[in-house]
User: Fold these one by one.
Assistant:
Number 1:
Amino acid sequence: MSMIAAFYSGKSILITGATGFMGKVLMEKLFRTSPDLKVIYILVRPKAGQTTQQRVFQILNSKLFEKVKEICPNVHEKIRAIYADLNQNDFAISKEDMQELLSCTNIVFHCAATVRFDDHLRHAVQLNVTATQQLLLMASQMPKLEAFIHISTAFSNCNLTHIDEVIYPCSVEPKKIIDSMEWLDDAIIDEITPKLIGDRPNIYTYTKALGEMVVQQESENLNIAIIRPSIVGATWQEPFPGWVDNLNGPSGLIIAAGKGFLRSIRATPMAVADLIPVDTVVNLTLAVGWYTAVHRPKSTLIYHCTSGNLNPCNWREMGFQVLATFEKVPFERAFRRPNADFTTNTITSQYWNAVSHRAPAIIYDFYLRLTGRKPRMTKVMNRLLKTVSMLEYFVNRSWEWSTYNTEMLMSELSPEDQRVFNFDVRQLNWLEYIENYVLGVKKYLLKEDMAGIPEAKQHLKRLRNIHYLFNTALLLIAWRLLIARSQMARNVWFFIVSFCYKFLSYFRASSTLKV
Ligand SMILES: CCCCCCCCCCCCCCCCCCCCCCCCCCCCCC(=O)SCCNC(=O)CCNC(=O)[C@H](O)C(C)(C)COP(=O)(O)OP(=O)(O)OC[C@H]1O[C@@H](n2cnc3c(N)ncnc32)[C@H](O)[C@@H]1OP(=O)(O)O
Ligand SMILES: NC(=O)C1=CN([C@@H]2O[C@H](COP(=O)(O)OP(=O)(O)OC[C@H]3O[C@@H](n4cnc5c(N)ncnc54)[C@H](OP(=O)(O)O)[C@@H]3O)[C@@H](O)[C@H]2O)C=CC1
């Protein structure tokens, strides 16, 4: 019997960010392994015209929850969706709901965050810092609370190259930042933002670092742990391989590459691609929840959930495997044939952006205009290149994260728990994982049918022929222009033509002699 699964039985668990990528997988695993848990409270806001209840209904009826519904048929009764908006005071939770949460919660998993790199500082501070502080305040009023697990990111200190499982202080106290957000206007915030984030690449990593400081400062009477995952990717094994539901991290780039929009990137091929499957993060999170509650470590432990030091894979290997999978299972209606050029040089990268990305988009828009349609490709390409430029920081560096606490925890687990809550990334076969990831992107993000693969292959063949035809025409035009303008080019041309003529005459003569 799994001790971790048994621990969660009968428990009341509060999850923030349950409608997000990681939150859904966390809920799924909890219900699947501990169907006897008492209740999962989730803080949900209405979104995109859906009420909180409709959002929960949609999640429970998704493919991700198919197994859960077999194991735990009354799963609907065990989810309590609480209307909440983490941007508002007291999260806009009703008095009754708040009372229930405070008196019943045993474990808190805080996953909610804004993960956008370009969010406004005020909003990112509100969600990643102030909301964390408020949730900790709530937690301190929960008499039955056994553990509070905060999800941060391995990149909260990405300005360092070696990162230990400790909290590194930011130059300005989070409390001062929170206070200043209340009275500074947007223009001043915009002005001071670059100074505050310093040598971090974006507001996201900075506010996540502030969030960790808040956790440390408010942790006195609480039993807290922090998990720091690196780049979270599709599921490795559970509930099935390749599940993914948003464009963050590599997923969006895999689509862009598979559809032939993105054909080159400024990236360091040998840099470590520190991807970590979402189910691995969730298994570690649940194991940490159990360990923190049962063993009550004296200080706040930080757990790195990374792959680089235990089972490294670099971007080149990853890129090759992604491309190899496109050969087997191409995406439908590609714009161009998928290709991968990576360069570490900014000028070369700009050249490829012009030749491989912008020029085809302009030509295609010209074709759309000619055929009476609205041009759109240049706009799509500009947005894609903006996204890529924001992700480039992470594919041009390698980090070293120490994983003592994570390895310690692994050794504390029973063999059964090591199996059921496996977070040993050494067992991961990257080639297999990447193949399943690309397949998952095709099935669950693009919603493409496998039956369409032969047609997609045909389409790629047509694109290859167009590509050859286009390049040959371009070469001929360039050569024709050159010999029209340059004596030297004409001389070379006459030399080649007369050489070919002589060679053919010689060949014909020698074959006539043999006869
Ligand atoms: C050696 C290199 C190997 C590769 C081979 C090189 C060859 C290159 C070509 C071939 C590639 C082949 C293989 C590719 C292999 C994988 C390469 C993977 C690179 C992975 C890099 C990952 C780096 C992640 C770093 C994470 C660090 C921190 C981790 C975390 O803690 S949190 C999670 C990370 N957060 C995010 O990822 C959020 C990022 N997104 C944003 O901040 C915003 O979306 C935005 C980028 C600022 C854009 O904002 P906008 O306001 O403009 O609009 P919106 O958000 O509405 O989106 C606009 C349109 O863009 C689409 N989109 C969004 N995100 C992505 C994305 N990640 N990739 C692609 N497209 C994206 C979105 O759908 C919109 O589209 P539209 O609706 O059509 O307009
Ligand atoms: N994905 C990754 O690569 C990595 C993620 N992380 C961390 O993991 C955690 C989960 O990330 P992930 O699941 O990928 O992120 P998602 O963007 O998929 O999910 C974010 C969650 O936060 C919720 N949320 C955001 N704003 C509010 C709000 N105002 N009120 C209530 N809920 C809100 C979202 O709700 P809604 O659905 O309503 O928008 C959603 O449920 C985050 O803390 C992130 O920093 C760490 C490393 C890497």
Number 2:
Amino acid sequence: MTSAIEFINVSKSFSKKDGSIQTVLDAVSFSIPKGQTTVIAGGSGQGKSVTLKLILGLMRADSGQVLVQGTDVTRIRGKELEKLRTHFGVLFQGSALFDSLTVFENVALPLRERTQKSEEEIRELVMTTLAQLELSGHEEKYPAQLSGGMRKRVGLARAMQLNPEIMLFDEPTTGLDPVMSQEIYHLFAGTQAEFGFTSIIVSHDIPKIFNLADRVIILERGNMDVFGSPEEIQWSEKPHIREFVKMTMGDIYQSHLVEK
Ligand SMILES: Nc1ncnc2c1ncn2[C@@H]1O[C@H](COP(=O)(O)OP(=O)(O)OP(=O)(O)O)[C@@H](O)[C@H]1O
């Protein structure tokens, strides 16, 4: 299976104020297959956002290789890095919409900034995506006039504009109620199936988010455990994974744990 992303012995540490060193990633290796959905989970401060930043080249690894579609991000800079980033669609917490721009303008932004398309072409593309994400009729509204779920959908519409091969979602359902979160998950599953991009989702919303996952990566104390499917997690013998299952998946997987 071809990998969209591969970490080979990647380490990342930070110097703390008290002079000590905090190792966030300790020689981790894993690969993210093309066209699949990988969920990155783990407790607070375990390095999920650092992992996304390393993938995007927003942060540099201390050692090891971070391969994005075969290119080592740790070795490129400037224009080359910018070009590589065009392969990504990014939806971060809070959707990061521009409040002073309408829905239409927010979604059109990447096309206006990154392509030579005419305004006519841009209108057609934006209106098509808005229709796909059930946002038709809202194009002249401003973000403040939308619900949280709609803002996420606008963020998703914008992230999809340049037909990215890889989508990164950082806590995509933060701040949404369970009904809206469910709606967003449906939308992810639908758009992923339709467009076939590689999805990487960082989320605390376990076990719900696991329904979307082809594979799961759990980060803890500098190490990563990679599971081929969410079901595999429950059979892990590792105490910290069993603890994670108990804390986050509770009753759903409890019976299996008891049976073991
Ligand atoms: N630029 C930085 N300088 C110093 N320390 C940093 C920096 N970025 C991250 N860290 C530290 O690295 C650790 C991992 O951070 P990260 O943001 O990746 O955690 P996370 O798993 O995404 O957590 P959360 O779920 O709370 O968002 C944290 O302890 C954080 O303080």
Number 3:
Amino acid sequence: MNTSELSLRERDARVIAEIGRLRFSPLSLVGGRGNRLIEEGGREVLDLSGSAGPAILGYGHPAIVEAVERSVRDMAGASLLLYPNEPAVSLAEELLAITPGEGERRVWFGHSGSDANDCAVRVLQAATRRSRFISFIGSYHGNLSGSMGISGHTAMTHTLPRPGVVLLPYPDPFRPQFSADDVLALLDYQFETTCPPDQVAAIFIEPLMSDGGLIVPPPGFLFGLQERCRRHGIKIVVDEVKVGLGRSGLMHCFQHEGLTPDLVVFGKGLGGGLPLSAVVGPSEIMDHAPAFALLTTAGNPVATAAGGAVLKTIASENLAARSARTGKLFTDGLRALGAKYEMIGDVRGRGLAVGVDLVADRQTREPVPATTTAKIIYRGYQLGAAFTYVGLKANVLEFMPPLTLSEDEAAEGVAIVGQSIEDVLAGKVSDKDVASFMMW
Ligand SMILES: Cc1ncc(COP(=O)(O)O)c(/C=N/[C@@H]2CCCCNC2=O)c1O
């Protein structure tokens, strides 16, 4: 059969490796404009996923189109390794200007959140001569060996954690199995026994735990953690890959927690959909040695031109404040659904990083089965919206829409989520419908 007779999804199944798929619906794309994805066949679908976060300016934003077109037409090389290029150096200057920090600092560019965290792990171990790390159960820092090794997401249990990593519980106010004080006491005990603090290079922190379930930490917890680490010379690395760059309602999500990180990791939205990440950190770390963390096309002029357009647009369109405003409308709308649907146990997040924790029982807060979560997403797709799920029990609807989401689109999204829940409760989606979308 020639491919012209096959759907895009059928062709995808024939050529794209399963190891690289995380599919939540049959949605197959031929385009995207504004905050809408264009499905094969032309249907427009409201994007509440941001393509797992990077599309913070939506699709086809004029600022990105113009910057990329200009840069690719007159391309200043294809690598930052060998030659400085104007877009990369300008973006680094802008990143240093917007990222709080003291002293001499430098920027490393990568292609993804994974390689940026991977680089941070390696250079911190080398520069501090300390080989232990602290991270969290539920954390997701990447899918390369180094970044996986300091992650604690259940989707990565096929890979052993890095030797010497301490994974702490991330306190969840909705399911307080471990309080903030419990976790701090556990860390103190680790320091006294099996994890000498002077052997710890750094702690990796998500200021809002995304893939682990859209968890906003208890007030003061991360600050308390930072103060403990500071006492032992342990570097503070904040992973802003998914919730940074205005999404949380502030430019940096760590600002909600009063953190003063040594290193900040950017990704996803930085490139506005083009592959781009960055690590910002002190020179004594980032200048550890030449040719230490090389990726040939990292910092290329096209992706970094897109990054420059993203930062300029976040500022010119005041997207951090807009995320706070639209996020509140969206969150309030979802919370209002909770009055009608017992299944909505908690609605949480910051700005336009929003999670809906689905429960089978409001009293026990037992998560719903993953099939229920998957059915709501599948039905949402049928009704015209794209969103995903996260959480260690696959029971948290995740919303990471473009920061350009309008108030009307937020209301439209809430209506679709409500109708999806209604229809799933009415049995309109079968287990068979979602069987191939139960991926993590
Ligand atoms: C806080 C945080 N840090 C780093 C990463 C890794 O970023 P890349 O997937 O760009 O390598 C991620 C990626 N998160 C996953 C990517 C896999 C699919 C599921 N959804 C995510 O957002 C992240 O959330």
